[in-house]
Input
Amino acid sequence: MKNKIEVFPGDEVAVEEEYLASDGTFADNGRIYASQIGYLVLDDEECVARVVTPNPPNLLRYGDIVYAIVADIRNTMATADVVAKDGTERQVGGETYATLHVSKIAPGYTDDVGKELRKGDFIRAMVLDTEPSLQLTTKEEHLGVIRALCGTCKTEMVRKGKGLYCPECKYSMPRKLADDYGNVKL
Output
């Protein structure tokens, strides 16, 4: 049987003899307390006590698809600022400063991040890890650069083969492109 009761942080909700603390709860001295506002769910089948909030924070987890802007490039890694999570309109909560290691950018061998990403590129990436830091990958076909501007004239670059081309400067450069580059609406 599952019971729902409205609870507030610090409310005692169960004892550890009967339930285990789960999402939205914590245990202290054999008692389980709510750690957030929400509805208490006492799950007798799994023997867990959890608090389900009606408006949870938009936290990132392994496997989430995110949109980010490349902030810096180094030889073996790039940093990016996560600006949105796919499928939600709500602002991302928690850590949004992420890293992409050179081995997690393209499916093939890459020895230089600058050959795949550039500062200011808009990318679609997948969350690999959130602890101890936010780590992303763009290895899959649907992941990678979704919008880029020319480094010289700031014109939006167009796809040409496996790279990008600036129609103003007539300049071509390689990138790790998402399969739908140029057709993404955020």
Observations:
- The chain has two domains: 2-52, 65-147.
- DSSP finds no helices and 16 strands in the chain.
